């Protein structure tokens, strides 16, 4: 089965020396205060009470999916590797710099620089310096939100474009599930129900057929959002278009964008 890392194509050859991936010196564009821990199910977090964004993603957007879904597939192990190097070095250095590519709302991956530290609770990256956009375009990406109590699914305009749907009122979860190809409906539904039951992350790939019968492949990642007392229960997340090239005799995509 194709993974997002497979879909990234030739760009994944990064690159033996991963701390020197750029061919030119970066130009520091601007800075933001954002935190993330090495827990792959953790999220990018903006400081409480402060407005701002991370490359166009709002604080609410960032809470909708594990941070790794915003990071380039080839860079997703770098934070844990940097933390392990800090733990084992025994050096008095308080932090180490880390550069990784993060997907912006504009579909560009950006080189970003973070400061990695080891704390009592694990490895933490703080920052962030925006350096320069990566030349490769990222996948089409949108956001979605499901109000479980009201059974209403809302999609961003980017997601509507990917699905070929018109702007309209929120739809029921069953209507969304009916749009998924039949072979994947059970997988999608089990992933959703599991997240609702145990609060873990929601990660699944699935196909949707267009009016011509051609299947389009998507990667979805989401999580239960923090619920205010007495408030509705929301499941939110990201959706990426994998842009498949199908192998003869196979329903699954073999290549695409990362």
Commentary on this structure:
- The protein has 258 residues and is α+β, with helices and mostly antiparallel strands.
- It has two domains: 134 residues, Beta-Lactamase (2-Layer Sandwich), CATH 3.30.450; 101 residues, PAS domain (Beta-Lactamase).
- The chain is built from six helices and nine strands.
- The strands form two sheets. A five-stranded antiparallel β-sheet has the order 6-5-9-8-7.
- The longest helix is centred in the C-terminal third of the chain and has 17 residues.
- It is globular, with a radius of gyration of 19 Å.
- The C terminus is likely disordered.
Indicate the radius of gyration in whole angstroms: 19 Å
- Tally of separate helices: 6
Terminal residue distance: 14 Å
Using the coordinates shown, work out and report the CATH topology of the largest domain.
Answer: Beta-Lactamase
* Count of extended strands: 9
What structural class should be given to the helix and strand makeup?
Answer: alpha+beta
Q: Could you estimate the helical fraction of the residues in percent?
A: 10-25%
Approximately what portion of the residues adopt beta-strand conformation? 25-35%
Q: Mean pLDDT, nearest integer? A: 77
Net shape: globular
Q: CATH homologous superfamily of the largest domain?
A: PAS domain
For the record, the CATH architecture of the largest domain stands as 2-Layer Sandwich
* Low-confidence residue ranges: 9-29, 245-258
Helix-strand sequence: HEHHEEEEEHHHEEE
Spatial sequence of strands, sheet with the most strands: 6-5-9-8-7
Q: What composes the largest sheet?
A: 5 strands, antiparallel
Total tally of structural domains: 2
User: What's the CATH class of the largest domain, please?
Assistant: Alpha Beta
């Amino acid at each position: 089965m194709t993974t997002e890392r497979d879909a990234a194509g030739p760009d994944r050859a990064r690159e033996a020396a991963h701390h020197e991936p750029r061919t030119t010196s970066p130009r520091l564009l601007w800075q933001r205060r954002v935190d993330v821990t090495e827990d792959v199910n953790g999220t990018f977090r903006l400081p409480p009470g402060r407005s701002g964004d991370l490359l166009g993603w709002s604080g609410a957007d960032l809470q909708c999916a594990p941070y790794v879904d915003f990071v380039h597939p080839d860079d997703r192990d770098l934070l844990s590797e940097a933390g392990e190097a800090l733990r084992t070095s025994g050096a008095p250095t308080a932090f180490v710099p880390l550069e990784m590519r993060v997907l912006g709302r504009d579909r560009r991956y950006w080189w970003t620089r973070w400061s990695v530290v080891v704390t009592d609770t694990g490895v933490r990256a703080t920052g962030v310096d925006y350096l320069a956009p990566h030349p490769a375009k990222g996948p089409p990406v949108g956001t979605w939100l499901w109000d479980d109590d009201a059974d209403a699914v809302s999609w961003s305009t980017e997601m509507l474009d990917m699905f070929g749907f018109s702007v309209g009122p929120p739809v029921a979860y069953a209507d969304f599930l009916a749009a998924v190809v039949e072979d994947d409906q059970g997988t999608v539904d089990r992933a959703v129900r599991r997240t609702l039951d145990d609060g873990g992350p929601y990660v699944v790939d699935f196909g949707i057929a267009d009016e011509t019968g051609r299947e389009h492949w998507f990667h979805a990642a989401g999580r239960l959002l923090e619920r205010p007392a007495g408030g509705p229960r929301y499941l939110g997340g990201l959706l990426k278009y994998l842009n498949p090239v199908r192998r003869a005799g196979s329903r699954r995509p073999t290549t695409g964008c990362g």
